[in-house]
Amino acid sequence: MNRLYYNLSQDNFNDFCVVVEQTSPPDQKIDILEMKDSNGLSFLRFRACLQSFNKRNRNGRLWRSEYMKAMLSTREIKELLDAGGVPGENGHPVPATGEVTIERILTIDPNNLSHIIKKFEWSPDDSKVYGIIETLDEGPGSAGQKFMRNILQGMKPSFSARTIVPQRKNADGTIDVTGVGRYVTSDRVILPSHDDAYIDTTVPVKNIVTKPKFETVMESFVSYVVDKSDKINRIVDGLNPVMESAVVDKAGMVSIKTDIGTALIFPESKYRNEFKDLMKSL
Questions:
Q1: DSSP of 233-275, one letter per residue?
Q2: pLDDT digits over 135-156, tens only?
């Protein structure tokens, strides 16, 4: 591999470097370390009714809103919200044996997470509690990604609260929640016990794709500079540049593939100064 070096940091249009790439001899082994970003996320954010109050649900259970308000105001729930949200599972934790232990009810399994509740909101009359929900992106095949794809295919997500509360069984078989207990989370279910506990269709679902902040800044900066920099455009003119290949490193140097190799160019000082200011905000 041949290299041509110049003073890269000046504004002179002839100051740049081209790495001339040529085929290596067949008997020469080259090890290539390729680094790709894998931190990009894709998830859905939506609003959903998590539970309704002051009327019996499909299971005959009656909840009073003041009990749930107290349960959502505990130190543990506030701590989870401050740390990013209350995670929920893909279905209630019912083992194959059908025997559910108190310990399992109180434990959120990190290997079965499908969503996270970012915020709780109450209706004006306290008859319903809503959640701002995000599906969790843990990669292909994960419960959260499946949840996202289910929604994109038209399924209406629904939820059921996982709690341990004092309750009383009435003579007619109905049940009254009689006091404040412990709220664990709201899990994703197919048919909720509260028939209102579905996605709020009046609020649009947001499809969110995020990238690491550094990568996002790099992409924005290089697109801007390649479009505006006279120095870059004069240097690569006639070299058949592949503008889509342009990238910028942390020092502000732009590299662009051409038909003779990769051009390494520091843009004009005004753009480098703008880049330094951007880097300070990261």
A1: HHHHTTS--EEEEEEE-TT--EEEEETTEEEEE---HHHHHHH
A2: 999 988 899 999 999 999 999 9
Token pair 């006091």 in the structure block, residue:
179
Residue labelled with tokens 């690569």: 236
* Segments in the chain below pLDDT 50: 1-8, 21-38
Q: How far is CA 38 from CA 115, 139, 210, 211, in A?
A: 20, 10, 11, 9
pTM over 0.90? The answer is no
CA atoms within a 13 Å half-sphere pointing along the CA-CB vector of 214: 7
Residue 226 CA, distance from chain mean position: 29
Tokens of 163: 């709690």
> How far out from the chain centre does Cα 15 lie?
42
Q: Which residues, listed in sequence order, are joined to residue 184 by a DSSP beta bridge? A: none
Q: Which residue type does 91 have?
A: G
> In the chain, what is the straight-line distance between the N-terminal and C-terminal CA atoms, in Å?
35
Cα(134)–Cα(123) distance, integer angstroms: 20
The one-letter amino acid code at 161 reads A
Question: Coil, helix or strand for 147?
Answer: helix
Residue 156: name the closest of 9, 233, 44, 237 by CA: 44
**Interatomic CA distance for residues 271 and 230, integer angstroms:** 11
